[in-house]
């Protein structure tokens, strides 16, 4: 029980401090779960990140669910999700409630975006040291970086990982022999994994049928949010047009309310998929917010928990270690590409920004300051320099 509470409160801390979008979240996770607490190795963390790139849904939330699963079983996975999403869900519910009466000035948030830049840069540097051990690793990471930056398509990441795995199978058979997974026990069986994966497809096919047969608002809401979570690759930004089609064009929420909520979602910590809580709150109050949140994250939960036993087993097969090493190198390249665009290109807008990010990086590398303290420093910087 103590371990489960620890999973929840660590995820809750991350949910309160992880600003900057999914790539930044992965940086915060790497700092907390790998470097500080050593709940899993850099290799195993790379496996989780890689799996999240293959699956539809919110990548960072899926990684958090995977960490919770490995640490505390299915309940640990749920508590990890709950802790990470709870802060932003509560903020967005309150925002939806008060937005009709109050205008929020959020210029100081830019300081937190600069913190995210430093966190991601440090995480990429640390993962690169541990996962890129030969020139072939570096070459694969570089090719992935170039591919993802030049081919602007949600499928680019999946294709890059598959190509990297093929290159790794040929080039890295011997170089990765000692870098095997240190995980001794997967908390769930493959049979349980199959049941969860089957449930994912049953809901995917069955919810539209139920919504067509029974014209109930809550069934329709579950169906729309579940499909959004199940069919979208590329993270929270990609789900925006689908949700706009489902709820704005149907007249359930106005365009101005929709954009206001999405803008607020960019400003709060935690996963972007919690935008669903805002939409649900506007449409049907607190019950709607709860239904929307669980419906949009349910596919991610079923997929990552169902697939993880098979994924880790693959990483332990000696003949596939080279392929997994190549895919891990690709993960570093993908994170580096996301760091360049959109994190740097949409955050660094002045010389002052560059200087502040450099100071934050110095705090991380030289003084090893904890990320949550850096977040507090980012708030102070934002208030002083950007308001």
UniProtKB/TrEMBL annotation:
Signal peptide: none
Residue spans crossing the bilayer: 74-96, 108-127, 139-172, 192-213, 225-243, 275-308, 320-340, 346-364, 371-386
Coiled-coil ranges per UniProt: none
This protein's record includes keyword NADP: no
Key words, A-Z: Cell membrane, Membrane, Transmembrane, Transmembrane helix
Superkingdom: Bacteria
Pfam families associated with the record: Chromate_transp (PF02417)
Membrane topology category: Multi-pass membrane protein
Chief place of localization: membrane
Subcellular localization, as worded in the UniProt entry: Cell membrane
UniProt xrefs under InterPro entries: Chr_Tranpt_l_chain (IPR014047), Chromate_transpt (IPR003370)
Family assignment from sequence similarity: Belongs to the chromate ion transporter (CHR) (TC 2.A.51) family.
Protein name, entry field: Chromate efflux transporter
Organism in which the protein naturally occurs: Lysinibacillus capsici
């Amino acid at each position: 029980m103590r371990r489960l509470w620890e999973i929840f409160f660590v995820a809750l801390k991350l949910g309160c401090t992880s600003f900057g979008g999914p790539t930044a979240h992965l940086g915060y996770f790497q700092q907390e779960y790998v470097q500080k607490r050593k709940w899993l190795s850099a290799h195993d963390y790379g496996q989780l990140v890689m799996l999240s790139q293959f699956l539809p849904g919110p990548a960072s939330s899926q990684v958090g669910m995977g960490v919770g699963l490995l640490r505390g079983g299915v309940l640990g996975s749920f508590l990890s999700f709950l802790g990470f999403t709870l802060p932003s869900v509560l903020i967005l519910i309150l925002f939806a409630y008060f937005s009709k009466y109050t205008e929020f000035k959020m210029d100081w948030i830019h300081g937190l975006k600069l913190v995210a830049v430093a966190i991601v840069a440090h995480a990429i540097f640390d993962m690169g040291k541990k996962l890129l051990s030969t020139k072939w690793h570096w070459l694969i990471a570089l090719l992935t970086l170039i591919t993802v930056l030049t081919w602007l398509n949600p499928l680019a990441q999946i294709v890059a990982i598959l190509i990297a795995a093929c290159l790794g199978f040929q080039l890295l058979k011997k170089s990765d022999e000692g870098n095997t997974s240190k995980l001794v026990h997967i908390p769930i069986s493959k049979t349980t994994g199959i049941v969860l994966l089957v449930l994912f497809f049953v809901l995917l096919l069955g919810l539209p049928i139920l919504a067509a047969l029974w014209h109930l608002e809550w069934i329709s809401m579950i169906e729309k949010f579940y499909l959004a979570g199940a069919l979208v690759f590329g993270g929270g930004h990609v789900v925006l047009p689908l949700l706009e089609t489902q709820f704005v064009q149907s007249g359930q929420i106005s365009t101005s309310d929709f954009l206001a909520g999405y803008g607020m979602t960019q400003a709060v910590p935690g996963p972007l998929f919690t935008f669903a809580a805002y939409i649900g709150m506007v449409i049907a109050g607190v019950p709607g917010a709860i239904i929307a949140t669980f419906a949009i994250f349910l596919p991610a939960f079923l997929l990552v928990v169902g697939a993880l036993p098979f994924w880790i087993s693959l990483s332990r097969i000696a003949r596939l270690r080279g392929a997994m090493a190549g895919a891990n190198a690709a993960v570093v390249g993908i994170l580096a590409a996301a760091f360049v665009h959109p994190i740097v290109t949409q955050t660094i807008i002045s010389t002052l920004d560059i200087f502040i990010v450099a100071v934050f990086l110095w705090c991380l590398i030289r003084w090893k300051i904890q990320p949550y303290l850096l977040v507090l420093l980012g708030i102070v910087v934002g208030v002083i320099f950007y308001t």
